[in-house]
Amino acid sequence: MTSKPKGTQMSEAYIIDAIRTPVGRRGGGLSQVHPADLGAHAIKGLLERTDLDPLAVDDVIMGCLDNMGPQAGDIARTAWLAAGMPESVPGVTVDRQCGSGQQAVSFAAMGVMSGVQDLVVAGGIQNMSLIPIGSAMDVMGHESIGHPEIEDPFTTSKGWVDRYGTQEVSQFRGAELIAKKWNLTREQLEEFALESHERAAQAQDEGRFDNEILPFGDIENDEGVRRGTTLEKMAQLPPLEEGGVITAAVASQISDGAVALLIAGEQAVKDHGLKPRARIHHMSVRGDDPIYMLTGPIPATEYAFNKTGMTPDDIDLFECNEAFAPVPLVWMQEHGIPHEKVNVNGGAIALGHPLGCTGGRLMTTLLNELERTGGRYGLQTMCEGGGQANVTIIESLA
Asked: Catalytic site residue 320?
């Protein structure tokens, strides 16, 4: 787990179970579902499968970005209530950008490790079809606010401009900057993207997601996998910027979905007769250059290895979010991590990236794949807005 001060005793944090909706593609089968109902679906499924009295839950922590409209008003609390759960149980919504779902699990683990809480539901929710990505960043010109001169979160801050100027701050620019700095070609990126789709299709065909997905109506599988795609088709797509190498084919997909995990402390495991599936071995978060934005997993993973004394050889499986193909490619290169151990069932390029949900989705998939393959340790990391990155290492107890 995270480092313990000498002479202190700290409880363990366990993952009891994890359930998610399918990931719907933009405009797909989940696109018109209220985000609270997506979250409620995962929460209800989690508590039914664990046969847990919902009154035993101390808190509900959910990741979500662009908290506007149906995602406003503390979506974690709304989803819990929409699931028909007790009003006495509170909820809180976390925004660490794309890492929000992973951070929600970390906060839940901190709560039970400290002894402040015993049982926490954690995860994430996002409907990107209803609330487009970045909606919360450009609302100042709306007539009810009336400040069209504030075009983004950064460039009207004197302190920000003094430090970083008025240059573009976006994930798209970050992906291009990374590809240029590490001399990645468009062909390399597209080969990685194609393999993501092929791995995801194989995983679906072999039923590897069956234990983690709770069908939503007639939507039973992740909708984003492109089985018929080829390198030739990818090569026809225009780059996002002239002369660039980033296209839609090498980017994560706009998606909708929700996930819920049950995190428990040692005493709660005993009191409720629960059977843990994994133990949180380590959790940390670090920051990096906010202009490059997507390089955070590199120093964050180095920090986690230094903190735990582990190396890539100690980790059986990795999940590094495929926000854009350059992110996992340079991360693997910098740490000497073989692709054979990374995103073995495909990643966000194929499966989709419902922003606030993805951190929990990655952990759910990692948990199930460790069990399927008999692996012991899995490491998850994600790039996040502001140049941040979370790292979580879990130990399978299967």
From this structure: no
Q: Which of 41, 64, 98, 281 is catalytic?
A: 98
CA of residue 321 relative to chain centroid, distance: 7
Which one is predicted more confidently, 297 or 9?
297
**How many domains is the chain built from?**
1
pLDDT band at 9 (very low <50, low <70, confident <90, very high): low
Considering the domain boundaries, does residue 154 fall inside one? Answer: no
Residue given tokens 């492109």 in the structure block: 226
Say if residue 6's pLDDT is above 80.
no
Mean confidence (pLDDT) of the chain:
96
The CATH number that applies at residue 124 is: 3.40.47.10
Q: Supply the pTM of this predicted model.
A: 0.96
First to last CA, the chain: 18
SS3 186: helix
Average pLDDT over residues 256-267: 98
Judge whether residue 308 has pLDDT over 60.
yes
Cα gap 64→204, rounded to integer Å: 26
Which of 168, 143, 180 is closest to 326 using CA atoms?
180
- What is the pLDDT at residue 8? 54
User: What is the 8-class DSSP label of residue 296?
Assistant: T
Q: Is residue 147 part of a domain?
A: no
Distances (CA, A) of 279 to 122, 128, 269: 15, 31, 12
Residue 155 included in any domain? no
Structural domain includes residue 83: yes
Question: Domain limits at 61?
Answer: 1-133+167-393
Does residue 335 have an active-site annotation?
A: no
Query: Exactly one of 41, 197, 282, 353 is catalytic; which is it?
Result: 353
pLDDT of residue 148: 87
**383 labelled catalytic:** yes
